[in-house]
Amino acid sequence: MNDKRTPRRRVLGAMARTGYDRIPVKHEGTPEVNKMLMEHFGLSNMEQLLRVVGDDFRYVEPVYCGPELRTFPDGSIEGYFGERYKYAEFEAGRYLEACYLPYAGINRLEDLDRSHFPGADWFDYSAIRRQAERLQEQGFAVCCGTAGDMDFINSIARARGMEQVLMDLIDDNPVYLAIMEARFNFFYEMHRRILEAAGGRIDFTHVGEDLGNQRGPMIGMAVFEKHFAPKYGRYFEMVHSFGAKCMMHMCGCVVKFLPRLIELGLDVYDVVQPTVPEMDIARLKEQFGRRLNFCGSMCVQSTLAWGKPADVEREVRRRLDLFPEGGLILGPTHAIQVGSPLENILAMYRAAGSMCEQIDASILDIQDGNAGDKINLAKLF
């Protein structure tokens, strides 16, 4: 088999700008969307779905063995830092939302309960190498981590409140800084142990930080430089020491942060949300395409949700023309949302050339591996 036709070689070819047989693809959908796709194709699990849409990535993850994460009488679920989440139900689906914020209103270090701070010892890494070897043998690009790892603004806000967190970053609140340091140390050490256990078999790590809103940055550059840059610089250096690259999920308009993130060592900017003209994928490629790779860019708020299949196909073709040798991993700008037309989702993967049009026993007999649609605490929290 031509190496460029295996998912991993396809992805690495895109990263190196050496070409590929088709553009690499990374799928993400809400559980409701994934269920709709599986029912359409007659599939029984997520691994089968990822094969059908042509997702080139697979993830390894350690086994949680820490303190029991409780479910409470109101149905809420405990997170790693003692916060709780409950499903917010709407007409066609549901989302987990924070419902108990244990660090809200705490402004003195002596009042901060550190007993809920998690540690990397809460996980068993003994199966990581076996997972990575199996995925490499199957030809996939191997990843670890999730878009919710690190995530010092959004995820700490789920335990403290968004308004409070944004104020904390301005006035250097010692309670926030202690939580931020604990969160960094937790994920840094977890990822380091995963990479070490894998023995060089992981291609990408995945973290996230929602530095932007729909129209501009969430924080100023001075705040970023003071609180975020040292941590991400140290993290990127560690990841690169294991021969892996780092993918960073960032929602919103984040263009002002990209030059500094590139200097710090970021390899892949994940989701690429085109909410304002300066976030258009062509403009981003012109400005940063020689030094940065992109993942996503197919908008779940406009084209995929409200366009026609022809609109989706046109947007995919535009990206194929912009990135003929590499630099983009095609996918949605977030999980594809409930209400997005099935025909639009299919149009995206067909236009990308990743869709498996003939579903036979070789796919239907596949059992789910690491690609479940279960609640992943690291991703959500």
A few lines on this structure:
The chain has 381 residues and is of the alpha/beta class.
Could you characterize the architecture of this molecule?
The chain is 40% helix and 15% strand. It has 381 residues and is of the alpha/beta class. It has a single domain, classed as TIM Barrel (Alpha-Beta Barrel). The longest helix has 25 residues, at 174-198. The model is unreliable at 371-381 (pLDDT under 50).
Q: Which value, in Å, is the CA radius of gyration?
A: 20 Å
Percent in strands: 15-25%
CATH class: Alpha Beta
Estimated structural class: alpha/beta
The DSSP helix count reads 15
Q: Poorly predicted ranges (pLDDT <50, ≥5 residues)?
A: 371-381
* Biggest sheet details: 7 strands, parallel
Strand tally is 12
Percent helix range: 40-55%
Strand order in space, largest sheet: 1-7-8-9-10-11-12
- What multimeric state do the chains show? single chain
The CATH architecture term is: Alpha-Beta Barrel
Mean pLDDT: 94
CATH topology: TIM Barrel
Number of structural domains:
1
Overall shape: globular
Order of helices and strands: HHHEEEEEEHEHHHEHEHEHEHHEHHH
The first-to-last residue Cα distance is: 41 Å
